[in-house]
Amino acid sequence: MFRNTDNIYKYSSSLQTFIAIFMFTSRTVFRQKIHKHFFFSTKIPFSVSAFDTKTGLRVAVKKLSRPFQSIIHAKRTYRELRLLKHMKHENVIGLLDVFTPAKSLEEFNDVYLVTHLMGADLNNIVKCQKLTDDHVQFLIYQILRGLKYIHSADIIHRDLKPSNLAVNEDCELKVMQSEGPIGLTVI
């Protein structure tokens, strides 16, 4: 059940909503809105950090609104879900969970993607502070490990740049998929 009551309103007996935009099951506890690059590299209009009461993890939740509104949107959604589902490496953003609050097909409009919460993207970090040589070496090592994993799955990252690299407060890095249709490509 939600424990943080700021800007949270009861939606129905089993669902909660955050400012009528986000609906969660009782498994997640809303924490705060997060910056668009905290967990996925796509420009996220609706994303929040949350606490998963089942796993005990702080997570990021991305809302895909009307992901199947057209064939193009459906293909992008399917590609994102398929690739994220199979990414299971400590240096690559992967999918922890997918859910919808809809109880029937008629109510089905939104899909929520859950992944690990990251602190910032590398682009924001290098703008704010100077990195030591040790930090640079460790970050490059993690980038190469993530890319090796992605390439071993016959996937090419077509937009690798600092804003597509998520870093947390422990200097752990994860390669994120790119914005829009560019992103990851299966070869």
UniProtKB/TrEMBL annotation:
Pfam families: Pkinase
Domain Protein kinase: 1-187
Name of the protein this chain belongs to: mitogen-activated protein kinase
Alphabetized InterPro entries for the sequence: Kinase-like_dom_sf (IPR011009), MAP_kinase_CS (IPR003527), MAPK (IPR050117), Prot_kinase_dom (IPR000719)
Enzyme nomenclature, EC number: 2.7.11.24
GO molecular function: ATP binding; MAP kinase activity
Lineage of producing organism: Eukaryota, Metazoa, Chordata, Craniata, Vertebrata
Cofactor: Mg(2+)
Keywords: ATP-binding, Kinase, Nucleotide-binding, Phosphoprotein, Serine/threonine-protein kinase, Transferase
PANTHER family: MITOGEN-ACTIVATED PROTEIN KINASE (PTHR24055)
